[in-house]
Putative auto-transporter adhesin head GIN domain-containing protein
Amino acid sequence: MPNLEKITERHVDITADQITTTPMFNQIRSQFPNSKTIALMSSDFKQLISEVIDKVTIKIHVQETPNSSLYNSSALNRQLRQHLQSYLEKVNNQLWNSLYWMLNQSRPDRLAKAINTMIYTNATNSNDFLYDSRAAKSIHKFSLAQQDIDRIEELNKRLVIHAHRKSSMESRQGVAESGESSSVPELFEMDSDDDDDDDDDRSNKNENQAQQFEQNQTMTHSINYKTQYILSRAEIENYLSELSDHVHLVDDIVLPKSINVHLINMNIPDVSNRLTTPVTSISDGRISQVRQVSSFHGIKTSGIFKVILTMNRTKPESVILIGDQLKSLVKIETSVYLGILSVQVTGGSSSSSSTRHRHVSNSTHSRSTSTQLGSSETEVLINAHHLISLKTSSMESVEISGAGINADIFELECRGFNSIYGTVHVKQLKAIIDGFSKAHLMGTANILTVTVGGSSKLHGFDLSTQIANVTIREDGYAEISCNQTITVNISDDDGEGTVKYKGTATVIRAPKSTGGTIQKID
């Protein structure tokens, strides 16, 4: 058993200077000197994180035991990501100008814009496209990477060579018509003799022939668009695949392909705003960690643990983890984004299989689930000041302690094998209880709108409502206490949905709702 007197903690301070002095950050800043938010591709984001980690200093307070592992690089990596990253999304038109792009290729949106000046639909045949070789020769004005300019010019020469060969062959066969453009069927599939066996003299000869051919076509047949060549959709797609991996043909226009990016806040907090790793304490054989979190108004959880939620404005908003093993605690990530506190397990469950079995197999109401869980269960103690939403999605059990949740509108969502027990006092309660979830709610809700699906149960006889809108799917079960109106919609499927109610409310069955059972309890 650990020494009851011993408290071990380790702090990691990440300062603004450690971030802004990295080579990667300086490269980004040099490209965007005045921008507040920058989009980074995953590879660049990982490079920035790696460089910051190399600068981080770890301070150890109080001697650790040799086998202790209170902090690891993966935890630091996660913490840095939460600190630097705003959110992850696909690049759209508004984000291209904020994208940090250091590849030796052109930025995809710029390349697509340039290509669209060379390739456009054929007005006389919507199934074909026109390729303008004259526009290809002016491609340098689009500030593309030299590699892409060279490639476009190379492909342009290859096209003209093929057009010349095609025209010569058709002339010899007596097929060509003087007023029509030539199709180029295998534009980018050169003969093996051309690719492998031609010497420099033959290559130069081909280019000279192509140049002479194009000059003649431009002077003699400009009225018939002889600098334009008809290409099929397949040929355009072939052309684009030869040119770049980052653009593609969508309908009749060339567009950049979407890529995932990390949005980075470039206004790094000053040195006094530090990130601190969890303070870990060992006492009475139980390990606890205090997680530092910013203010939040919603909670989202996913994992196998017990949540004890309190609403106390006289104490700071906080998250404390308690468990028997440190490795279970470090797997639980906590973060706040857009006011939502996220508590989730990564890399495995946080409880034993026996705990999981007790949680799932309980057939009574959710309060029993909480009380039956043993002391070995990982606990998450959350204190909030104001709460408008709570979402659980795995195998959590949630207990709302004390006076409960007070709000005008409160949203509750339970999906999975979880349970919730507690008191709410709200004007409007919106709830989704699905999977194998159980909710035992007490208190008041002027208006209740609830959907109970799967094999889930709502025990709401202790929740006083005036108006209740109840939707039951599959084998969902709901107990309602209502004094004015209950509208019930039980899906007409193979399930056996049930609604039991108390109170003086008038019951209205929704149109086309013919399944299940509605029963008044005296």
Observations:
- The CA atoms of residues 201 and 254 lie 36 Å apart.
- The mean pLDDT is 75.
